[in-house]
């Protein structure tokens, strides 16, 4: 069973009464994060370690993953979300060491900026959408052993039909069709997993525009600490948290 966290989120300023209630229900547990050797995934892993969670840091490259895990006191598992054997082995490793999985963060993702073609689209969908299926399906048996299983898919508001058709939203002006479509698929998969597993909290999040390697060719972007905080908060809301939603740190987003 998850253990009540020793320290609550005193570093978070939030005046919303419902959110304060969520904070009181924060639990520590066993977490797996994909694509966690850098960027938002790495910072999410670091913050979860700081909160006292046992964190399995998934990375496709063994050296990059092991270095990242060592740096923050996490455990590395080799995990390429496009490789069924790699995903199965990673979940076997966790199952051999743990009795359950409490938190899964589907974070691994790619965004290509070259002109779209078949291979590029296949890679984007394989990573951003099919990867969610591979990892979630492999993790479900262990998640079912948790009393408060939570899945967070780091999706994107670029995959929101509402946002991309709303001229007032920045996503309206984005032209990266393949990335947007793959994230729409990731969000739909997350919603379907939520419907199929009502005993779990399963949500998709738009983390916020963030300065990472993915956005290095563009200006701006907030620090990974801010975006990871939103991911961690959603991953640790516990039983009182929402399920079957797409959201950002301000609340629920339309599909
Ligand atoms: N940055 C933003 O503004 C923003 C906004 C909305 C959503 N997102 C989403 O946030 C997530 C994290 O992105 P980021 O900005 O932190 O980008 P990032 O710094 O480029 O990190 C992406 C991570 O995904 C990993 N990855 C890629 N393909 C993988 C695969 N096949 N198997 C396992 N891991 C794989 C990368 O590993 P390698 O180091 O091995 O490549 C890296 O660890 C993505 O899903 C992205 O779409 C980001």
Automatic annotation (TrEMBL):
GO molecular function term, any single one: oxidoreductase activity
PROSITE patterns named in the record: ADH_SHORT
Cited SUPFAM superfamilies: NAD(P)-binding Rossmann-fold domains
Key words of the record: NADP, Oxidoreductase
UniProt key word Oxidoreductase: yes
One of the Pfam families matching this protein, by short name: adh_short
Family from the record: Belongs to the short-chain dehydrogenases/reductases (SDR) family.
Name of the protein in its database record: NADP-dependent 3-hydroxy acid dehydrogenase YdfG
Organism: Paramicrobacterium humi
């Amino acid at each position: 069973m998850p253990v009540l966290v020793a320290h609550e989120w005193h570093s978070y300023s939030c005046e919303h009464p419902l959110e304060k209630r969520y904070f009181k229900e924060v639990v520590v547990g066993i977490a797996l994060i994909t694509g966690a050797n850098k960027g938002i995934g790495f910072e999410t892993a670091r913050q979860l370690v700081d909160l006292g969670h046992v964190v399995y840091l998934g990375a496709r490259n063994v050296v990059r993953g092991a270095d990242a895990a060592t740096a923050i006191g996490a455990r590395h598992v080799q995990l390429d979300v496009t490789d069924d054997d790699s995903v199965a082995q990673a979940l076997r490793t966790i199952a051999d060491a743990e009795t359950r999985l409490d938190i899964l963060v589907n974070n691994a993702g790619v965004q290509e900026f070259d002109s779209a073609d078949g291979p590029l689209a296949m890679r984007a969908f394989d990573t951003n959408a099919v990867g969610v299926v591979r990892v979630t399906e492999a993790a479900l048996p262990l998640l079912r052993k948790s009393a408060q299983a939570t899945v967070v898919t780091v999706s994107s508001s670029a995959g929101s039909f509402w946002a991309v058709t709303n001229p007032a939203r920045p996503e309206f002006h984005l032209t990266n069709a393949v990335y947007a479509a793959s994230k729409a698929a990731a969000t739909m998969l997350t919603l379907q997993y939520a419907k199929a597993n009502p005993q779990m909290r399963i949500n998709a999040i738009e983390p916020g525009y963030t300065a990472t390697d993915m956005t290095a060719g563009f200006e701006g972007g907030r620090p990974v600490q801010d975006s990871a905080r939103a991911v961690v908060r959603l991953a640790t809301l516990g039983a009182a948290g929402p399920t079957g939603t797409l959201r950002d740190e301000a609340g629920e987003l339309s599909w």
